[in-house]
Amino acid sequence: MLRKLIISAAVAVVCTATAHARDENEGLHSNSNDASQLSNTTKNSTNKVTRYSAGDSIPLGYPKEIQKTKNIEVAQANESVPKIKVVKYSAGESIPLEYPPKRVVGYSGASSIPLAGALGDSVTTHIGLGQAGLAEQNGLINTSPAGLLGLFVIKAGIIYYFDNQESTLRKTGLKASAGVWSGVTMNNLLLIAGSSNPLSLVGGALFGAYMYRREGLTLEKEEAAKSSQRIAAQAK
Q: Using CA of residue 87, residue 88, residue 91, residue 93, what is the dihedral sign?
């Protein structure tokens, strides 16, 4: 009887030990599988790249080398874009359209010498005709006050015509008008003063040449002033 009990106890111990060992093996295998699955999950999550979709995908996890390449490409693209110069217009500033601007009415400053010579010719002729021994040599001229005034108006019209022509014709006409009529005026003044005819003619010719040259200097100053205004307007 005792022998049967010992054998039964031994069999029970062996069965218990075997079951315990099997459970431990299964636990170790299960733990190994879990660790392997966790490792695979970690690798998959590490290799996964999140992207935005806004027309083109934008990766978030670029390596440093790729980011540097991108920065260089952006810099080169910005340098390749041509710089456009912006020209601004100011509504408060006038924009000159023509040099020199055309005059509609009136005379320029350069016409003052020819006008003075024309007026002096009419006035001195009227004064000289009032003195004894002096007479107008040109029979086509009306020596009455109204005729002399009309003659001045004609001369003023000729000066106005030359004053509004192109540069070359304008300069030639104004200088000639200044020289001729200034010379005639001086001739009349010398006759009124009592000089003889040859002396008055020489004096008139010399004075006419001087006024011709002075008119040329006036036109040169006028042209220089217009050039300075043109350069200043273009520099704005």
A: negative
Closest C-alpha among 168, 183, 185, 181 to residue 219 = 168
Q: Which two tokens stand for residue 106?
A: 């009136």
CA distance 17 to 22: 9
Q: pLDDT tens digit string along 98-147?
A: 544 455 568 999 999 999 999 999 999 999 888 777 777 776 778 788 99
- Separation CA 149–CA 142 (nearest Å): 10
Q: What is the C-alpha separation between 191 and 124, in angstroms, rounded?
A: 10
d(CA 54, CA 110): 73
Which tokens go with 69? 């390449």
Query: b/e per residue, 11-37, with b = 16+ CB within 10 A?
Result: eeeeeeeeeeeeeeeeeeeeeeeeeee
Count other Cβ atoms within 10 Å, centred on residue 91: 5
- Helix%, strand%, coil% for the chain, nearest 5: 70, 5, 25
Name the DSSP letter for residue 110: G
